[in-house]
Amino acid sequence: MAQEIEHIHLPIRGLNLHVAQVGKDELGTVVFLHGFPEIWYSWRHQMRAVAAAGYRAVAPDCRGYGLSDRSPEHEEAAWEDLAADVLAILDALDVPKAFLVGKDFGAAPAYEFALQHPERARGVVSLGIPFSPGPMPFDDTMPEGFYIKRWREPGRAEADFGRYDVRRVVRTIYVLFARAEIPVAKEGQEIMDLADLSTPLPEWFTEEDLDAYAELYENSGFRYPLQMPYRALHKIPDRRDARFQVPVFLVMGEKDYCPKFPEFEAGMKSGIMERFAPDLRIANIPEGTHFVQEQLPEKVNELLLGFFKDRPVAA
């Protein structure tokens, strides 16, 4: 019988952060860090799998997301907060050392935590996002209608999203981000115009899943999610001198649109990650999209558990 996922709130650096957890920690702890438009729920398949294998799974809602508190409106989103929140969560749960698994913008605090606190990290897994040693402005490489350029404009996404209810917004983003093509609007279009209700959800994403996401975004709104990551991308710390002291595992879906970003594509072709991560493993999932952990959970779980098994507690 599958273990039940437990939900708690922890006082973390002035905010109450929601944390989902399951498992007994017989083999160690795995911290899952979500991206956008996700929350803890996006890791439901991985959490149960690692718990069944003997690990404790911990999946927080990032500050400003899901059931976690939002930062005060006057505070700007800062990448440094995300890694500091991870450290504080581990301390609050009395976890001395953990594997970090990050997806989308959640890969950034996973990487940063491992660089800042190698003594607390057993390894880092990133789904779809290579390590970036600095900001990626996209100004010279992507067209005006590129979704990140649109969403980093104050007020533009708010007006675009505001035409629809939260459920419709989350639905549209899941449809668009599950495609192999980078979401780009034409002149006179907004990003929400790129899909409508006649466009089916991905076959692996149910109406019940959509209900779960919509309920959590009804709670949090989109104010902080638009700040982090989209309006903070230019503030990613400069880490050109970075060198990982822990193993790094990059899992790439070949139908994920993110690796098509010119900055990521050039970096992967040049082998730049090997310069920063001497102990690097890369796996490609041919049918994998941006949501590979929800789309193909058994494959992702197999890869994760293989990586963890190769690095037992005594290592």
TrEMBL record:
It comes from Urochloa decumbens. InterPro entries: AB_hydrolase_1 (IPR000073), AB_hydrolase_fold (IPR029058), Epox_hydrolase-like (IPR000639). It comes from the Eukaryota. One of its GO terms (molecular function) is hydrolase activity. Pfam families: Abhydrolase_1. Residues 29-160 form the AB hydrolase-1 domain. PANTHER family: EPOXIDE HYDROLASE. Keywords: Hydrolase. The keyword Ubl conjugation does not apply. The keyword Hydrolase applies. Belongs to the AB hydrolase superfamily. Epoxide hydrolase family. This is AB hydrolase-1 domain-containing protein.
